[in-house]
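Retro notes
What went well: the complex prediction finally ran end to end.
Inputs used:
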Amino acid sequence: MPIQNLLYAVPACGALALLYAAFTTAWISRQDAGNQRMQGIAEQIFRGAMAFLAAEYKVLALFVVVIAGLLVLTADPTTSSPMIGLSFVSGALCSALAGFFGMRVATRANVRTAAAARSGLSPALSVAFRGGAVMGMCVVGLGLVGFGALFLFYLGQFDALADVDGSAQELTRVVNLLAGFSMGASSIALFARVGGGIYTKAADVGADLVGKVEAGIPEDHFLNPATIADNVGDNVGDVAGMGADLFESYIGAILGTMVLGAVAASGKLEAAILPLLIAGAGIVVSILGTFFVRTKEGGNPQVALDTGSFGAAFVMLPISWLIIDYCVKSAAANGTPMILTHGAAPITTMALMWAIVAGLVAGVAIGLVTGYYCSKGKRPVNSIVAQSKTGPATNIIAGIGVGFESTAIPIVLIAGAIYLANDFAGLYGVALAALGMLSTTGIQLAVDAYGPISDNAGGIAEMSGLPPEVRGRTDNLDAVGNTTAAIGKGFAIASAALAALSLFAAFRNVGFRPGEELMLTNPEVLIGLLIGGMLPFLFSAMAMKAVGSAAMDMITEVRRQFREIPVLRSALGLVTKAEHENRDLTAEEERQVLEAGSKTEVERCVAISTQASIRRMIAPGLLALISPVVVGLWSRFALGGLLAGTLVSGVMLAIFMSNAGGAWDNAKKQVEDQKKDNSQEGNSGKGSDRHKAAVIGDTVGDPFKDTAGPSLNILIKLMTIVAVVIAPTLLKMASGS
Amino acid sequence: MPIQNLLYAVPACGALALLYAAFTTAWISRQDAGNQRMQGIAEQIFRGAMAFLAAEYKVLALFVVVIAGLLVLTADPTTSSPMIGLSFVSGALCSALAGFFGMRVATRANVRTAAAARSGLSPALSVAFRGGAVMGMCVVGLGLVGFGALFLFYLGQFDALADVDGSAQELTRVVNLLAGFSMGASSIALFARVGGGIYTKAADVGADLVGKVEAGIPEDHFLNPATIADNVGDNVGDVAGMGADLFESYIGAILGTMVLGAVAASGKLEAAILPLLIAGAGIVVSILGTFFVRTKEGGNPQVALDTGSFGAAFVMLPISWLIIDYCVKSAAANGTPMILTHGAAPITTMALMWAIVAGLVAGVAIGLVTGYYCSKGKRPVNSIVAQSKTGPATNIIAGIGVGFESTAIPIVLIAGAIYLANDFAGLYGVALAALGMLSTTGIQLAVDAYGPISDNAGGIAEMSGLPPEVRGRTDNLDAVGNTTAAIGKGFAIASAALAALSLFAAFRNVGFRPGEELMLTNPEVLIGLLIGGMLPFLFSAMAMKAVGSAAMDMITEVRRQFREIPVLRSALGLVTKAEHENRDLTAEEERQVLEAGSKTEVERCVAISTQASIRRMIAPGLLALISPVVVGLWSRFALGGLLAGTLVSGVMLAIFMSNAGGAWDNAKKQVEDQKKDNSQEGNSGKGSDRHKAAVIGDTVGDPFKDTAGPSLNILIKLMTIVAVVIAPTLLKMASGS
């Protein structure tokens, strides 16, 4: 069987994932949605989330049309085709659909998780995890269906199979066209991450500062009008934003490997097909993995999640070996090796396997380091807790110090992975290392998305006044899966760096004539390097300022409601009084408080977050898209420097911001676990000055870890993919002048 | 007259500066040192500062001996000489001496400034400025005497003049030997900046948090046992640290130009001598400039400082033109052009002038941008003030956002300067652009060092209970000179980037064989780039953690004294009570408070800062020295990437940290200027919640702007100069293997 026939299996695997998602969605809908009050709250969250998505997609639709038009108009017919517009629109559409479906199910699963938590931990885990699994499968399913179908279509259009043994010119053109799909996915991802990140943190910071700190009511309390917006934020930021993010990573890693495969020495079709086959197999393995995520009552959900996720990654190793071996042998059977090593010998299956293993080991190790820097009871978090004793200033200094320091080991690990992957299998090996980490994205994302669903379930339990043991169960669900999530974060950082590197190599291949080199001593390269190094700072500044000012609007609005709605003001008094006296509310008080809760003007808070995030996501998004174009029009060499500079400082800032944010978060939790002691000597536990300092640190960390930090991974890749897409045009302009 | 004879003028100009410093020192000693109480306080500050310097230099002496020994042992006799050890020791020694003399005079001038401020602003300005001028002239004087004498000595040793028209092999060897001087200066500078920065901020943060925030007594109050340490810190950090820093920049810029001059196409002696002649002329102009810094009573000291400093820079322009023209013509008279342009035509005087002007314009513009980002009443500081309304968390988020954003324009300006300087006169032009900014270091540093002297004078006035109008005058002195200081900071950042670039080019020239190129697509270069990008983060983490933990020790100690010394505790009560009732202390209360002040255990606080800073400066210093060696031993290509990576993220972090710190500082001051209004709606002025939030931001900014930020400029250059020094050895090892 010719290897290209195997390609039909790729969209088929994608379709399988979508089928799984559809069945699981139906199963979730059949679950108990709880009492009327719970359903009412869930409905508010659902409507808020959908309103945001509608507003966001309206803006993005316009953007996609404009960019697609520009791509069609400027496409160079000798190395590309106006069809790149089709690729771009497809990529954007698939990403948007994955976000839409995933979030729709997440906003159904949250209340059903809360409802299931009334009867026990095990059924709640099932609902939450399956909700996450729908998101995961939608991402990989739509990814492979769209990308795979487009690949087959272009192969047919451009007769790329005819030059299997030749110059690979047509294959390169096809792969360049597919870069448009990746660019579409990256663009949507950046806007979704930034917009969602601003939304969720403006609401979160606003709700916490006025509710918890100023008014002294518990987190997620229904008297706080920003609580619904906060819960909507978990969905638009942590579910839809993360889904688009991983869609982008997944496609980027596949595309990076394909481009390098297509241009690698002999340009064999096998080298370009291999990443797609691995991704397809990854879907099947991920689906199987989801069946292992179950726990008995009293069992440990952590074990269940780890079994599914690590099990899938582990099973992928021999399967990858088989696929690689098949490709290597198929190429050899046609007379030319798949790719050549540095020594110009044919690559071996084992060398490619080692590249994948190097990537996986680095990813897992980075995850463990990330876990170390953010975990309660470890040295970094302990140091923040210790320095919180002397107030917020020393807490902040300590947290920034921890975040800065935490860049060191991950960078050394990434450097090691690059060294090994390149040593074994050249730049193709580096790309494959990134892909290896992302092949089981389906189940990894299920575990990631399960977190915010449990978080939401907890919020609903709190707001609808379910008994404390229900909240305990949802908190328990939320707390586990952290190891898996940390390792997922390690994969995200390491794979972003490696994928950006392979896309960078692709840019170098398509954007320069033979003999032209990107030398570090070329002043144009140096200028690009400096400007590129600056962009992640400017981008983060925009994101953080957006959160800061949106949160201020939110705070002002909540304060206004607390002040101007009389029943709300007196209800707040009742709650804090009872809290202070350490007793439950009386039936009459309960009635008054409930009555006041229905008077909060929730929609105003939702509207503030929605408007602020949509308006504020545009500038940083455009910065990422336009700067490579502007710099590239001046000099392709400066553009090369720009990408390298953005990669360097972007990766550092991403690691710094994620880890500082995570460490502050857990430092606060660790203080809350301490014994209460408000004396100057002790100064520990909830309500102490140390706790107040730790809460401030946590708040500063929020936009770090949930807005700016995760967007930077996308920024790096989006800028590089834009460079890959425009490179042929730039080269032609340079030749013409 | 052969041009080399002019070289004798270089150490002569240096000697002139030292003479000026000696005369000025004698003048300062003759001024009134105030009453006994003032002298007692000044003596404590003086002894604390000298104790720190003694402890620091003891550690550094050991370090210098070890490194010098290593340099002697590993020197390659074909391209270098064991005499590089002599260069290194001389550079270290000159830097240390400049710090010693400068600080000695600064700790004499502070109390005399306070004493002079009793009679008026004008005499106080004279004393403070002349104190700063001694520091400035010691730096440039010792720099040129040491560097110039060493150059003449090596020229004699190695017969470098014989190959004026030839390969310049011996001239290159001489310049390589001089790199050791620069390395010595940079090493001392890094330790002095880090050590001094830790000292001053640990004391400042500790004194402020316990004194101002917790106990509610005014800043610099003598009841606060950390106040003396805080004032010592101003001297060891802002005077000695800054002196060593500028010594390093000055020498680095001269050396960078010399190296590129020596290796530039035709390797004419003129190209290597030119920077020394410009520096020598700069000293004469600086000395003349100091005579223009004087003001009538009621006059504006800002105008006086600006006249001296801008006047000197302006006068340097025609003088530079004359010197350049002389060199260009002298080279042409010998038959070969000084250097060649890109088009291989002889360089013109005007082209080199344009390079200098490009550097100067970029430096001034960056200074103005820096001023904008840190000034009261401008948008960035206003935004921090606005966001302080909702507490410390939003204050911190806003400040970090401002700092991140402030990297954008300076980087574009630096990029523009590189583009123009390179376009006009190649990499030699880039080096010359850096030198142009630093040629009048003598008077610039005088203005910079005048700040901490006035600050100290204010502290002494406060502690010794001088009338409020005296404190008003010293505050007034302290407040002006900010424009000049901001532009000095712009010069420091821009010149660091340009000087590092020229040293980087020098490394490329001496460390690689013809045909070897530092290509961005080489995985070793990329690995170096990533690791290099990480180092400034790790380095800053070390510096900030040192400040955080030293400040904690200080806070604990001050709290202990407040608690355990009974007379101190009751005196604090009297002061805050009187403050609260808005009245002066009664005579009896005054007596009790004074009595209590003599019971504070000041020496303990001084000892805490000294020990912490000496112990904690070692690890970051070694990181900077050892990492280029370790990476270079693995791969020279990775070392090239390492330097580029450190340059990129180091410059960004330096700008971010300096500007965020400055903006927080002035945001706090702006809140203090507001009308007092403690209502939730108003929330403004001293004592309001907004003010508390702004104080926290200011405290976070302290280690940013005074410890980590300024050290990064040195880190970048130190790593590059280490690479330049070890490059010949690395190249030989690579050839040998």
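What we learned: Residues 562 and 569 of chain A are 5 Å apart (CA to CA).
What to try next: split runs per interface for comparison.
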